[in-house]
């Protein structure tokens, strides 16, 4: 009479195959049977007893629930070079928001004084969450949906919510890139079309104050750049608002088609292709920013803009809204919670130093935002000088208007305007493409890892289907009133939903999966455990940081307005429905798990 027990052996060194040890019992005696040969991705040889392998079991002894064995196979893509990964992460984190959002929020919230709450929120909130996601993706080597099988299965709805939010982002974000492509095409002219008021789309309110003296600027005045954007690019005057958005602009649809074509051929083969594309799309913006910074610094009135940008208003530090804006800015800038960091880091080698990567990429991101402020405000100072007004009167524009009205207007009146317009919009296109690559890769990795039996060998077809869905979902943003839809999706499709998802993710990892277990995972990769600072941030400070943003945004929601159009109450209700449509998958999946017959791994490993 004999029986056999098979044990799965998991080493801290990644394996191609899980190795199995067999115990046999014969005549009351236990003995090891000959184990099959282990095949390793790395060449390290295990030493010591079975219990000594991998991270310490501290914190596991009192947990009877089984922990899934993580395997690393050759079938999974890997980055060709370390720099491919770093540039992909930097390209995702450094996006159009670094150029338009940070400078505006900085001067609005106290100038140089704003850097204090910004740095504090980065150190205690943004960077720890950034580090956490990189470590999770690298250790578990899977996307945003299936990773929860290894962390806390009842929270798997977070992965589905992330994918829905990423879809909403793709519906409007690529339209903004299409606008930039339209401007790029229009820039190939000896005289830029937004330089003067002699075009078919201009009205009697068009006022060109450059190269002219004694020009009166009033509340009804519109610059040539503003009318080019609103009446030629968007044709928003043909829409009555969200009730009647008008027809689709075929010119913008063609631009969007070209954008998605680039996106498809950058992503269809996985990180092998996207890792090469980012060498251009992630580095070119820095070359352009440096050129524009030098040009801006030589303009008359530039110093006035820099002073306005950085002059500290210390009394602002006592306003709660300033700290909320700092927290929200660092969260959306670094991008934890979007599933992108999980996806990108899952293609890393198991022993990659994700801690160093988190610090380096976070610093690059924050410094880029800071430098972008100089690029923008040197030009705003120049415009204030030309208009003979204060910088604050010029700097009222924010969001896309800053990039499509204010900056092009200044470029149009520089020497060599065509050259600077071309490189500026190339920079905008590349900044946007990097973030699109990351957002769609998060969906691709999450879904393909969740359904490998159906999609493992069909990546090209799946990516094509995803791109088609994103293109069709973007059609409403290409209408005459498409800018209104863009604003609605930006505010409600992402907004509080992604912050709530990030909050639940931090809670699930730190409280349910356990900070001890998570620290042991990091130790098995890096050879050392994270310090006390990181543990305290993950357990308490970072979740509190996200809860603070959520509560503040819900208590005092800002009024929604674009140009002179105030969003009606029914549209705000629609916005909340859009936000709930992504977040609802979390409680839905929890209920689904609770009504199923309980299994040892149904809920959490606690």
UniProtKB/TrEMBL annotation:
The keyword Magnesium does not apply. The gene is LOC115199815. Coiled coil: none annotated. It is found in: Membrane. Pfam families: SNF (PF00209). PANTHER family: SODIUM/CHLORIDE DEPENDENT TRANSPORTER (PTHR11616), TRANSPORTER (PTHR11616:SF129). Na(+) binds at residues 91, 93-94, 98, 333, 365, 431, 434-435. GO terms for cellular component: neuron projection; plasma membrane; presynapse. The chain crosses the membrane at residues 85-103, 115-136, 157-185, 248-267, 279-303, 323-347, 359-384, 419-440, 461-486, 492-512, 532-550, 570-592. NCBIfam families: Na_transp. Keywords: Disulfide bond, Membrane, Metal-binding, Sodium, Symport, Transmembrane, Transmembrane helix, Transport. Disulfide bonds join 197-206. Residues 36-67 have a biased composition (Polar residues). Belongs to the sodium:neurotransmitter symporter (SNF) (TC 2.A.22) family. It comes from the Eukaryota. One of its GO terms (biological process) is amino acid transport. This is Transporter. One of its GO terms (molecular function) is serotonin:sodium:chloride symporter activity. It is a multi-pass membrane protein. Residues 34-67 are annotated as: Disordered. The keyword RNA-binding does not apply.
């Amino acid at each position: 009479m004999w029986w056999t027990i098979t044990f799965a052996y998991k080493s801290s060194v990644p394996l191609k195959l899980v190795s199995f040890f067999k115990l046999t019992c014969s005549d009351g005696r236990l003995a090891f049977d000959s184990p099959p040969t282990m095949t390793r991705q790395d060449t390290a040889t295990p030493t010591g007893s079975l219990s000594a392998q991998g991270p310490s079991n501290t914190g596991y002894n009192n947990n009877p629930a089984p922990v899934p064995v993580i395997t690393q196979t050759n079938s999974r893509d890997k980055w060709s070079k370390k720099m491919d990964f770093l540039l992909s992460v930097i390209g995702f984190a450094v996006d159009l928001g670094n150029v338009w959002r940070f400078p505006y929020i900085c001067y609005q919230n106290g100038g140089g004084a704003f850097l204090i709450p910004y740095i504090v929120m980065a150190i205690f909130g943004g960077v720890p969450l950034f580090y956490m996601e990189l470590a999770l993706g690298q250790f578990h080597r899977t996307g945003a949906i299936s990773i929860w099988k290894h962390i806390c299965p009842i929270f798997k709805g977070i992965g589905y919510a992330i994918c829905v939010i990423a879809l909403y982002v793709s519906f409007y974000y690529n339209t903004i890139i299409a606008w930039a492509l339209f401007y790029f095409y229009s820039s190939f002219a000896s005289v830029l079309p937004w330089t003067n008021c002699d075009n078919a789309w201009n009205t009697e309110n068009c006022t060109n104050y450059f190269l002219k003296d004694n020009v009166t600027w009033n509340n009804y005045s519109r610059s040539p750049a503003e009318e080019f954007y609103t009446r030629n690019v968007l044709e928003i005057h043909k829409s009555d608002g969200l009730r009647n958005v008008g027809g689709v602009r075929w010119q913008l649809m063609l631009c969007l088609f070209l954008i998605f074509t680039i996106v498809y051929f950058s992503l269809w083969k996985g990180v092998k292709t996207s890792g090469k594309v980012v060498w251009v799309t992630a580095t070119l913006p820095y070359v352009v920013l440096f050129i524009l910074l030098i040009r801006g610094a030589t303009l008359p009135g530039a110093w006035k803009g820099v002073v306005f940008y950085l002059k500290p208003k210390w009394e602002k530090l006592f306003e709660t809204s300033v700290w909320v804006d700092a927290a929200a800015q660092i969260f959306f800038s670094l991008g934890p919670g979007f599933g992108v960091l999980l996806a990108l880091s899952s293609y890393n080698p198991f022993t990659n130093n994700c801690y160093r990567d988190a610090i380096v990429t976070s610093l690059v991101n924050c410094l880029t935002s800071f430098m972008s402020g100089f690029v923008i405000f040197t030009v705003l100072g120049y415009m204030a000088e030309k208009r003979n007004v204060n910088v604050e009167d010029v700097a009222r524009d924010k969001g896309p208007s800053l990039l499509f009205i204010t900056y092009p207007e200044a470029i149009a009146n520089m020497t060599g305007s065509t050259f600077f317009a071309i490189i500026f919009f190339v920079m905008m296109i590349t900044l946007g493409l990097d973030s699109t690559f990351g957002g769609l890769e998060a969906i691709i990795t999450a879904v393909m890892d969740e359904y490998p039996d159906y999609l493992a060998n069909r990546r090209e077809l799946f990516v094509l289907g995803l791109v088609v869905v994103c293109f069709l979902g973007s059609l409403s943003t290409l209408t005459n009133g498409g800018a209104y839809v863009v604003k609605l999706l930006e505010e409600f499709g992402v907004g509080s939903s992604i912050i709530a998802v990030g909050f639940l993710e931090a809670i699930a990892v730190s409280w349910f999966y356990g900070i001890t277990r998570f620290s042991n995972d990091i130790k098995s990769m890096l050879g050392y455990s994270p310090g006390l600072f990181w543990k305290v941030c993950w357990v308490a400070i970072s979740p509190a940081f996200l809860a603070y943003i959520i509560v503040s945004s819900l208590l005092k929601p800002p009024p929604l307005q674009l140009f002179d159009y105030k969003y009606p109450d029914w549209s705000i209700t629609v916005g909340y429905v859009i936000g709930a449509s992504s977040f609802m998958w979390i409680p839905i999946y929890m209920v689904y798990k609770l009504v199923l017959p309980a299994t040892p791994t149904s809920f959490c490993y606690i």
